[in-house]
Design goal:
178 residues, mainly alpha, 8 helices, globular
Length: 178
Amino acid sequence: MVILDLIFGFLLVFAGRTLFWLCVGIVGFLVGWQCTALLGITDGWMALLTAFVLGCLGTLLTVSFEWFMVIFGVGFLGGGYLLMVIFSSLARQDPYLWLIFVLGGIMGTCLMVIIFDWTLIMISSFLGALLIINAVHGKEGFREFLFISSVAIGIFVQSVTLKETASRENSTGLVKSH
């Protein structure tokens, strides 16, 4: 899982907004991975296969229902997953784990509707940074530095591509589809 965490992490950090369909697929995989235990699937390969199928389903639905799935897949699922990770110590002790997930999902969905591009950039950068530090072992200070720098780099790189896309659309007269 370490290699997948690194690959997914870098993809989310550097191209989460640009490749939003892939972002939804990765979030589907992450949520699927978390749900395998809830589904009673504990076998390593079966859990990986289940998470992969859920990720592919998320990606397929995103291609078919782009706007809805990006809002749901990244906003709700990504926001829920992110809040669960942030409050992981609380989530492990709380019998209402689903409530933390739903609260994060609602917050993520609202933000996606209000400020789509920036929320996509923020959630994908944070999720990517979490995946990267999950794959890297080392002292806590190094991991914190890696997390903060990964988030900052992700936000910077994706904001530059957002500005380039906006200026290209303005110069050609194109209108954004979302």
